[in-house]
Design goal:
Helix content is 46%, strand content 0%. With 94 residues, the protein is mostly helical. It has a domain of 63 residues. InterPro entries: DUF5592 (IPR020275).
Length: 94
């Protein structure tokens, strides 16, 4: 009978190197593809600043905020925009 290794948990993100995860790499590649599709709508004199802006935007979106290190910045911004504004909850300071 074969010997199969069954992972104990599957929710851990795959790390490529010390600070880059697989999802971050795929996010940057997707953003690069969107940038290349949008370049036709940008005036030729503004294309280099557009590339710089999109690069900085991509890096800022995958950074993990210090207030919630388990989420990335785009997840924290999405949760902020989607949450109900009329609902309040207690913040535990411990």
């Amino acid at each position: 009978m074969g010997n199969y290794n069954i992972p104990k948990e599957i929710s851990t993100e795959l790390k490529i190197n010390k600070s880059l995860y697989l999802f971050d790499l795929l996010f940057i590649i997707g953003l690069l593809m969107v940038t290349m599709m949008l370049r036709f709508f940008i005036h030729p004199t503004l294309q280099i600043p557009f590339y710089v802006f999109m690069g900085i935007f991509g890096l800022l979106m995958i950074v993990r905020p210090s207030t919630n290190p388990k989420k990335r910045m785009y997840e924290a911004l999405l949760l902020t925009l989607v949450r109900k504004k009329s609902t309040y909850c207690a913040i535990d300071r411990d």
